Amino acid sequence: MRSTEKHHDRYVFVDGKECFQSGASFKEGGAKAPTTLTQITDAFDAVQRTYEAFWAGAKVERRNGR
Predict the structure, then answer these.
(1) At residue 26, what are phi and psi to the nearest 5 degrees?
(2) Cβ–Cβ contacts within 10 Å for residue 19, how many?
(3) What are the pLDDT tens digits along the chain (66 aa)?
(4) Which of 10, 42, 58, 63 could be joined to 2 by an S-S link, Cβ 3.0–4.6 Å?
(5) Rounded to whole angstroms, how far apart are CA atoms 53 and 66?
(6) Distance from CA of residue 16 to its chain's centroid?
(7) CB 2 within 8 Å of CB 55
(8) DSSP helix/strand/coil, 27
(9) pLDDT at position 28
(10) CB count, 10 Å around CB of 22?
(11) Please, what is the Cα angle at 20 between 57 and 32, to 5 degrees?
């Protein structure tokens, strides 16, 4: 997992072939309000390029001492 201050939305990329955008924090998982997990299809290439650039410069997050 990596984080950056350059964006707010949460995206999950699966094997460089699929992309999903979450309407809620992964931490809360929609616990406080309903949310959606939407697959990005038509704009996949543009979204992937944008977030690959963010990923390259993002801070690596260490969880549970790993």
Answers:
(1) -70, -30
(2) 19
(3) 666 676 667 888 899 899 998 877 766 666 777 878 899 999 999 999 988 888 888 777 776 655
(4) 58
(5) 24
(6) 13
(7) yes
(8) coil
(9) 64
(10) 16
(11) 100
